[in-house]
Amino acid sequence: MNKVLPSLLAGDFMRLGDDIEKMEAAGADIFHLDIMDGQFVPNISYGLPVVKAIAEKSTIPLDVHLMTNQPEQFIPEFAEMGVAMVSFHIEATAHPHRIMQLIHNHGMKAGIALNPHTPVNMVKHLLPEIDFVLIMTVNPGFGGQEFISSCVDKIEELAVMKEDSGYDFAIEVDGGINNETAEICTKAGAGLLVSGSHLFKSGDWKRAVDTLKG
Ligand SMILES: O=C(CO)[C@H](O)[C@H](O)COP(=O)(O)O
Ligand SMILES: [Co+2]
């Protein structure tokens, strides 16, 4: 069964606590938190005090997606808050292996995110230690964008690399995920599905989460 990760970027920031409770009751597996610095991506989302408040409220694990230029910056703080998984963009650093170690040394799962144009081969030599690869299916920076279908080939390629290498890592997809694109991605090999606008705009959150779980 797929795991469903609602992106709280699409939640109602004035009532985030209610949204968290309702999404948990609807069966969400993990909350996805998008951190944007206005540098790596042309948008700013929210920072440490908001993550802390979410961590105190949530009863399910948190997945922090760093869209920042210095992804190593706040790793100890996220660990302190109880975050379970952190991903950072390979395009944002010359030292992905070192950052992966830093995340692991703080007791969290480490993921590497790839922009739509970045080939999956970039993570090949990191696979022995990686916990998950996040394939962006939109250009990072905004919710509510349209799924980029050419990214599906990358999920398939990564699934083949996983099979051939025997390394155990999860494949996460993020951006434009709805019932139709979720099915395409899971068939290609993804198991962690981030969904923001589709989930939060659906009238029946439990039904929407169940459908994505497949
Ligand atoms: O990383 C992201 C944007 O950069 C978000 O996680 C993603 O866009 C989710 O939103 P939606 O499902 O509305 O596309
Ligand atoms: Co994201």
UniProtKB/TrEMBL annotation:
Coiled coil, from the record: none
GO (cellular component) term, any one: cytoplasm
Pathway, per record: Carbohydrate degradation
Cofactor or coenzyme needed: Co(2+); Fe(2+); Mn(2+); Zn(2+)
Active-site feature positions: D34 (proton acceptor), D174 (proton donor)
GO biological process, one term: pentose catabolic process
Gene3D superfamilies for this protein: Aldolase class I (3.20.20.70)
Catalytic function, reaction form: D-ribulose 5-phosphate = D-xylulose 5-phosphate
Molecular function as annotated in GO: D-ribulose-phosphate 3-epimerase activity; metal ion binding
EC annotation from Swiss-Prot or TrEMBL: 5.1.3.1
Entry binding sites for substrate: S7, H65, G141, F142, G143, G144, D174, G175, G176, G196, S197
Family the UniProt entry places it in: Belongs to the ribulose-phosphate 3-epimerase family.
Name of the protein in question: Ribulose-phosphate 3-epimerase
Upper taxonomic lineage: Bacteria, Bacillati, Bacillota, Bacilli, Bacillales
